[in-house]
Amino acid sequence: DQQVKQNSPSLSVQEGRISILNCDYTNSMFDYFLWYKKYPAEGPTFLISISSIKDKNEDGRFTVFLNKSAKHLSLHIVPSQPGDSAVYFCAAKGSSNTGKLIFGQGTTLQVKP
Amino acid sequence: KAGVTQTPRYLIKTRGQQVTLSCSPISGHRSVSWYQQTPGQGLQFLFEYFSETQRNKGNFPGRFSGRQFSNSRSEMNVSTLELGDSALYLCASSLTGQSEAFFGQGTRLTVV
């Protein structure tokens, strides 16, 4: 049962344009969401997070939007840079007192110069 | 502040052997979680330790076990290795488990 889904395996954008990565979830008990960036053979790097009590969180070029009614979140990267090329994972955490993260399958972003 | 440190980075083991992986969390972090990443299954949660107690466990067989020491360092052990255990094993630490988790570089385990 895939509770967190990233339906687009890959995305290609031009440098300077906006990258939009999407994530859907099924469990309404999730109350905290995170985005990670990952290069091959390395650990994920934390990018940005959002609590379920908010609908937007911004940090520099990265903005995460949460639509609870649609059980959907998205990560916007503006402007996209070639160094942003990596695999992006969204992850969700339940409301219980736990560090357990449930990850989506990831989206490979390629930013072309 | 030093990040999450995992040792060793690479490991090759034979089927049937056992292996122990180590994780040193960020100083002050008390929650340590372990994940397995494989091409087919993605990133899957193994278990979480908090204050030396296992707080949560993923859907993995009993061959996978772990522990946490009083200094929050953690180890995970896999016994009777199978070819399918070949994966990148990742450790993540957070202050209490309720905030952001920061990952180490991972240990690449190859079972032959």
Give the secondary structure arrangement, pairings included.
The complex is a heterodimer of chains A (113) and B (112).
Chain A: E1 4-5, E2 10-14, E3 19-25, E4 30-38, E5 45-51, E6 56-59, E7 62-67, E8 72-77, E9 86-94, E10 102-103, E11 107-112
Parallel strand pairs in A: 2-11
Antiparallel strand pairs in A: 1-3, 3-8, 4-5, 4-9, 6-7, 7-8, 9-10, 9-11
Chain B: E1 5-7, E2 10-13, E3 19-24, E4 31-38, E5 42-50, E6 53-57, E7 64-68, E8 74-78, E9 87-94, E10 102-103, E11 107-111
The first-to-last residue Cα distance of chain A is: 38 Å
Major sheet of chain B: size, sense and barrel closure?
Answer: 7 strands, mixed
**Which stretches of chain A of 5+ consecutive residues score pLDDT under 50?**
none
Mean pLDDT of chain A: 94
Distance between the termini of chain B: 37 Å
Structure class of chain B: mainly beta
Category from helices, strands and their pairing of chain A: mainly beta
How is this structure best summarized?
The complex is a heterodimer of chains A (113) and B (112). With 113 residues, chain A is mostly beta strands. In chain A, 0% of the residues lie in helices and 56% in strands.
Structural description of this entry:
- The complex is a heterodimer of chains A (113) and B (112).
- Chain A is mainly β.
- Helices cover 0% and strands 56% of the residues of chain A.
- Chain A contains no helices and eleven strands.
- In chain A, the strands form two sheets. In chain A, strands 2, 4, 5, 9, 10 and 11 form a six-stranded mixed sheet that branches.
- Chain A is globular and about 45 Å long.
- In chain B, the strands form two sheets. In chain B, strands 2, 4, 5, 6, 9, 10 and 11 form a seven-stranded mixed sheet that branches. Chain B has a four-stranded antiparallel sheet with strand order 1-3-8-7, with no helix packed on it.
- The termini of chain B are far apart.
